[in-house]
Amino acid sequence: MTRVQTAYLDDDALDLSDAAPARVIEIGEITAGIAVPERGGVRFFSSERRFDGLDGTLFRTVEQAARAAREKDRQPRLRAV
User: Fold this and answer.
1) What is residue 11's DSSP assignment?
2) What are phi and psi of 14, to 5 degrees?
3) Please, where are the H alpha helices in the chain?
4) What does the pLDDT average to over 51-76?
5) 11 vs 17, 36, 72, 79, CA distance in Å?
6) Is the pLDDT of residue 12 over 70?
7) What pTM does this model have?
8) Any long-range contacts for 55-64 (C-beta under 8 Å, 24+ apart)?
9) 74 and 55 in contact (C-beta within 8 Å)?
């Protein structure tokens, strides 16, 4: 299950009244990262190593970022031996 939650920044120095909130993207029990709105879409910042390949990627929508995170989670992981 993928869940997208709203994350609010608590910074009085920034005027965020017109800005869309950042969104937390969770894949199952794992927090994949956050999608931060910017001109042209949302930028993904990973919070879990397995999603680092998506870090810094600009997506058109939060839904596209969540879909990419789900696909990344399905990829087999290499393990050190």
Assistant:
1) -
2) -100, 140
3) 62-74
4) 95
5) 12, 15, 32, 40
6) no
7) 0.72
8) 59/35, 62/4, 62/23, 62/25, 62/35, 63/4
9) no
Determine the residue type at 38.
Answer: E
Please state whether 72 falls in left (phi above 0), alpha (psi between -120 and 50) or beta: alpha
Question: 47 with 28: CB under 8 angstroms?
Answer: no
Residue 62: C-alpha distances to residues 20, 32, 76, 79 (Å): 11, 13, 24, 30
Confidence class for position 33, pLDDT limits 50, 70, 90: very high
Query: 77 pLDDT band (50/70/90 cuts)?
Result: confident
Q: Name residue, tokens 């965020």.
A: 16
Entry field: residues in the chain: 81
Q: What is the overall mean pLDDT for the chain? A: 84
